[in-house]
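Hey L., structure's done. Input below.
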Amino acid sequence: MAKKSLDLTCGNPMKQILLFSLPLVVGSLFQQMYSFVDTIMVGRLISSEALAAVGSVSSLNFLVIGFVGGTCSGFAIPLAKSIGAKNTEEFQKYLDEAHEKNNLTIYCHPQWSSTPPRYFDKLKGNFAFEIWNSGCAIEDDMDTDNGMYWDELLGMGIKIFGVATDDGHEMYHHCKGWVMVNAENNVKDILASLEKGAFYSSCGPVIKDFYVDDENVVHIETSECEKIIFQCGF
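Output:
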């Protein structure tokens, strides 16, 4: 079934805005219901001390989510102007501005966004793209394994890393894809390791050791997994 997109630049503005906002309102109500039920469960089934502990970190949780959400909303304004003007090539200057400020950018859910690999020539500077996205995988059965997509990008000479992320719009999206970074526990070192590729992405198995010996034989030690496939040639 083809995915139907909503073009907010066409038709009756009020109708389009209402159609766009209604799912957001419903999602917000469900999120509030989740918090309400969570409070009841913790208070009744664990203890009042546990409930107090949850409440004591709610401000910190709101601070982090608010900061990330505000940053995304601010960055969305110039991008929305470009989309409305049908000028997708204008995106690059916003990417460049983000990179000049030492930010790392990731291209999200390329399959869900219907973005073919050739479009990456117009979106330069992303250090990685999502090879797995939990939200898209669970809700739409998309972006579950963008390995072939990755191979095509590498074959085109585009050096880019693959990351597994949650895109956690809902709580049940969380903790199903993550990135393991070889770095000290501080932001500067983590960002530096991400930029140079000192990490791996996973949806479960842990890579405990990996190296190539003097005879070019690959050695790998992992936690329990179904199979290991080596892909090379780029």
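Strands lie at 106-107, 128-133, 161-165, 178-181, 199-202, 207-212, 218-222. The longest helix spans residues 13-45.

-- N.
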